[in-house]
Write a structure and sequence with these properties.
By secondary structure, this protein is an all-alpha fold. Helix content is 81%, strand content 0%.
C-alpha cells in the first residue's frame, strides 16, 4: 500500500471518530433538555438526509476538485457544525450540518481509493477502510459517552482542558473542544493527500444536467448485474447497521442494566469483531470471489435474532464479537465489487455518490421505521427480531440473484 493510502485511512478515521462522538453528545443533550425519545433516531435521519438530497451534486463536486482538497474542506464544515452547539443551537441542526459536510466527504474519501490503488488491491483497501471506519464509529461512541455522561472523565477533562477565554469552562464546552481537536487531527492528515492527480470532465455544471447525469449513473449501476447485488448488500448493511448502532445503546441499558457510558463502551467489542472480519476478508477473499460471502449475511441476521436470549454481559461480549466478525466478512468484499464496477462504469466520485444515495435511503427508511417502533411502544426484543429477519430475507433474495450473476 502507498503512504498516501494510510494518510487517507488516518484522515477518515479521525473525522469519523469525531462524528460519532458528536452524535453521543447530541443524544446526551436531547436527554438533558428533555426532548422526546423519538428525537434520538431523528438525529441520524437528519444526518443521512443530506446524503440523499445532495447525492446528485456531491459526486460531481468530488470530481471537480482534487479529492484530498474536498476532504479537507468538508471536514472543516463538519467542525463548524460541531461548534454550533456552543451557540446553543438545536442538536438536530448542529448534527445536520455535520451530515451536510459528510455527504460531500464520503465520495472523495472512497473515490480516491480507486484513483491511487489498482483494482486487485481494492478488497484489501476496503478491509482497512471499513474496519477503521467501524472502529472509529464505535470508539467515537465510547469517547462521546465518556465526555458527556461519565462524571470522572468530565472532571478530568475540565482539569486538563484549556479554560482560558472560556474555551472549556463547562462540561459541554470541554466536550466540544475534544471533538473539534479530533477534527483538526483529521485535517492535518489530509494535508498529505491534497492532490491524487485524477481529473474528470466537469463541463456540465447546471443543476438539470447534474440531476440527469446522476439519474443515469444510478440507473447504470442498478442495471449492472454485479452492481445490483453489491449495491443491495451495502445498502442493507448500512441501513441495518445504523439502526443497530442506536439499538445497541438502548438494548445494553434495558437488557443488561448498563449506563450510557458503559453501553457505549460495550460496542467496542462489536468493533473488534468487524475489524477481524474485515481483515480476514481482505486477506482471503479475492475480488473475483466476492459473491461467495452472501451466506454470511443470513447467519448475521440470525445472530441478531438470537440476541433476545442474552441477558448477561458475559454472554453479550462473545455474541457481539461474533456478529461483528460476520459483519466485516459480509460487507468488505461487496463494497470492493461496488467500487470496482462503479469506477469502470462511471467516474469515481459519481459512483460513490450513487452508493451513498442508495445506502442512505436505506438508512433513512430503517431509522424512520425504528422511530415509528418507538412511537408505538414496540418491545426491544420485537425490534431486534424484526431487524434480524429483514437481513435474513433480503440477503436470501440477493444471494439467489448473485447465483444467477455467477452462472451468466
Amino acid at each position: 500500500m502507498k503512504p498516501a493510502f494510510f494518510a487517507i485511512v488516518g484522515a477518515q478515521f479521525f473525522s469519523s471518530l469525531a462524528d460519532s462522538a458528536l452524535f453521543i453528545l447530541c443524544v446526551s443533550l436531547i436527554t438533558t433538555l428533555s426532548f422526546p425519545e423519538w428525537m434520538t433516531p431523528m438525529l441520524k435521519m437528519g444526518f443521512v438526509l443530506s446524503y440523499i438530497l445532495l447525492a446528485p451534486f456531491a459526486g460531481a463536486f468530488a470530481d471537480m476538485f482534487p479529492k484530498g482538497r474536498v476532504m479537507l474542506v468538508t471536514n472543516t464544515i463538519k467542525m463548524f457544525g460541531c461548534t454550533l452547539i456552543l451557540a446553543k443551537a438545536n442538536p438536530l441542526l448542529a448534527y445536520g450540518i455535520v451530515g451536510f459536510g459528510a455527504s460531500a466527504y464520503s465520495p472523495a474519501k472512497y473515490g480516491i481509493l480507486a484513483e491511487v490503488l489498482p483494482a486487485p488491491r481494492l478488497v484489501a483497501a476496503n478491509g482497512w477502510i471499513e474496519g477503521t471506519t467501524v472502529v472509529s464509529m464505535i470508539l467515537g461512541t465510547i469517547l462521546g459517552g465518556l465526555i458527556s455522561a461519565n462524571e470522572h472523565a468530565i472532571a478530568w477533562l475540565l482539569h486538563i482542558a484549556p479554560s482560558h477565554g472560556g474555551i472549556a469552562d463547562s462540561p459541554v464546552r470541554a466536550a466540544v473542544f475534544v471533538i473539534v481537536l479530533t477534527y483538526l487531527v483529521a485535517g492535518v492528515l489530509n494535508l498529505a493527500v491534497v492532490n491524487a492527480g485524477a481529473r474528470y470532465d466537469t463541463a456540465r455544471r447546471s443543476i438539470p444536467a447534474l440531476l440527469l447525469d446522476f439519474y443515469r449513473c444510478n440507473s447504470t449501476l442498478w442495471r449492472d448485474r454485479e452492481g445490483r447485488v453489491s449495491l443491495g448488500v451495502t445498502s442493507l448493511f448500512w441501513g441495518a447497521g445504523m439502526v443497530l448502532q442506536i439499538l445497541l445503546l438502548a438494548w445494553a441499558q434495558s437488557a443488561l442494566g448498563l449506563g450510557l457510558d458503559k453501553a457505549a463502551a460495550l460496542q467496542g467489542v462489536f468493533a473488534v469483531g468487524v475489524v477481524i472480519g474485515a481483515a480476514v476478508a481482505g486477506k482471503t477473499v479475492p475480488l473475483v470471489r466476492s459473491m461467495s460471502v452472501m451466506p454470511v449475511g443470513i447467519v448475521l441476521g440470525a445472530g441478531l435474532c438470537a440476541m433476545v436470549f442474552v441477558h448477561t454481559v458475559q454472554v453479550a461480549l462473545p455474541m457481539l464479537l461474533a456478529i461483528g466478525v460476520l459483519a466485516g466478512l459480509f460487507v468488505v468484499p461487496m463494497n470492493a465489487v461496488l467500487q470496482h464496477r462503479g469506477h469502470k462504469l462511471m467516474s469515481a466520485g459519481q459512483s460513490i455518490a450513487v452508493q451513498n444515495f442508495n445506502e442512505n435511503l436505506a438508512i433513512l427508511a430503517m431509522t424512520a421505521s425504528y422511530a415509528m417502533a418507538l412511537q408505538v411502544k414496540l418491545g426491544m426484543n420485537t425490534v431486534l427480531v424484526m431487524l434480524g429477519m429483514a437481513i435474513v430475507l433480503v440477503t436470501a433474495y440477493l444471494r439467489a440473484h448473485a447465483r444467477t450473476v455467477r452462472h451468466r
